Amino acid sequence: MRAPTGAPVTREHGLELLREMLRIRCFEDRCYQLYGQMKIRGFLHLYNGEEAVAVGAMRALRPSDAIVSTYREHGHAIARGIAMSKVMAELYGKQTGCSRGRGGSMHLFDASKRFYGGNAIVAGGLPIAVGLALAQKLQRESDISVCFFGDGAVAEGEFHESLNLASLWQLPALFLCENNLYAMGTALERAQSETDIAARARAYRIDAAAVDGMDVFAVEESVRGAAERIRHSGGPALLEMRTYRFRAHSMFDPQLYRDKAEIEAWQKKGPIITLTTRLKALGLMTEDDYQRLEREASAEVESAVQFAESSPWEPVEDLERFVYAERRA
Amino acid sequence: MTYRDAVREGIRDAMRTDPRVFLMGEDVGRYGGSYAVSRGLLEEFGPERIRDAPLSESAFVGAGIGAALGGLRPIVEVMTVNFSLLALDQIMNNAATLSHMSGGQVSVPVVIRLATGAGRQLAAQHSHSLEGWYAHIPGLRIAVPSTIDDARFMLAAALACPDPVLLFEHLYLYNMEGDLTPGLERVDLDHAAIRRGGRDVTLITYGWSLHKCLAAAEDLAKEGVEAEVLDLRTLRPLDDAAIMLSVRRTRRAVIVDEGWRSGSLSAEITTRIVEQAFYDLDAPVARVCTVEAPVPYAKHLEDAALPSPARISSAVRAVVTGSGAH
Q1: Domain boundaries in chain B?
Q2: Annotation says B57 is catalytic
Q3: What's the topology of domain B3-173?
Q4: Residue A138: its chain B contacts at CB < 8 A?
Q5: Tally: H helices and E strands in chain B
């Protein structure tokens, strides 16, 4: 596993990362409640425990880089800068949602942020990211394409086809695997003959490393480094972020496949508690700071809920809009 | 020129006039294309724009979708429709959905060219006609060039379209010879075309079957039956207006489709005629489709499985005489 270089941490940097992770955590906890109240329907995959990956990665990327995500992408969308209100409105299925109520939790889009959607077919986003990277290469851009996916995707053919193509054509793609150890309920070692995901990328001659996905600094630093190498060399890279999902796979998952003790052990090394402990130990943050950040995040989430509640529904007459592109007059 | 030459000219023209256009697929470069469509293009445009892809249909079709999102105008060649099943996730779950699912924020202007159809004794796995399947999917546009003019100009119309377009080229047509219509510079993706006028029955078709219908119409004319032949050109959206206009005039319809009949494009067209022109009909709608079996290898069996001028003529005779109007 690639270790962080231990660059000095500043109060401003530390609090900013903590603030972003708390925003996501607070958003997800509220979604959990809203699902119980039937305000949100469909599939809901919460990101609790994995916040460091989205926050560290997005901070290390440029606004002009392209992002392709998965169905567990609330955290990616929020960390990318999509307004929480638009994300919440999308979960409500409202017209003001970031996909006008057509996508829901698994399909958040914001073209202005170059956020090309959560993709709900495991590994289905990888070829698209490869194509975005191809467009960047052919248009001589210095931007890169970043694709989030889980450990489950590594078993899919599209993972292997995409890595091969990106390496063969030396495309500026960063493959960001969020290895939370379970593909729904199937543990990595029960599904894959080689569980070292970085090693599988190296088989395609792709620069790859495993990173402590619970350490937001390590995530940020590794993504910044990989992104710089990609911009410089043009070729792809893969980072395996070792993380853990604290909540169930989805709202329908009784979690028969893992022990409570395992979850508790991971929660003790969760990304928010780890960062909080570190910042306090370094004397960069007080409990008051933490409370303030949490209050601010909570207020922002409540404001997003109010926005979603008061937003209009997309008119049913418009159901068939955007099936085909609306041509310019 | 051959149909193959016409397709190649269409690609060359697009590559010359729009730097965003590139061609990607299996053996499109050094090999010159499995059906020799892209021969010479690598030499003219170089490997950056004529890209040989590995045998990874899902990755390179998905890459075409991604490149379209990224501002380019990819032409993706899937060697045959049979192999497109390996890219069905990308075509159906991504190309067809992203515009709608993003609330119109993105569009996917990718063109996917596929060879389709049977008739070369290639057996079941290389003889599918799945364009009707793809026509089932909202978000896609399905077009079928069946003439030299369409082979030459349909690609430009597809590239100008902001939506994903699948162009189906029947493998039997690549060697077909013909002349371009003098002065023609463009075609559309919206309208069916009457390829032969007639008053007694409308043959509704596309692809290789168009030419079988034209042959059948010649034979029928000798018997005094004047068949109108309507080339659908686009299977999604279907040009209902052209279909109904013709059927209301001839009062009889025979649909000729190389796809199977169950749950099919021919079933859809039949239904639309029944819904929209039922009281104008003098006879039940008839269909000539591929026999419901995997397409076999042996020539006599394959011939028997596919629509043929003889089967078409026979269906027309039944419809015309059965009505008692002649």
Answers
A1: 3-173, 193-323
A2: yes
A3: Rossmann fold (3.40.50)
A4: 22, 48, 67, 72
A5: 12, 12
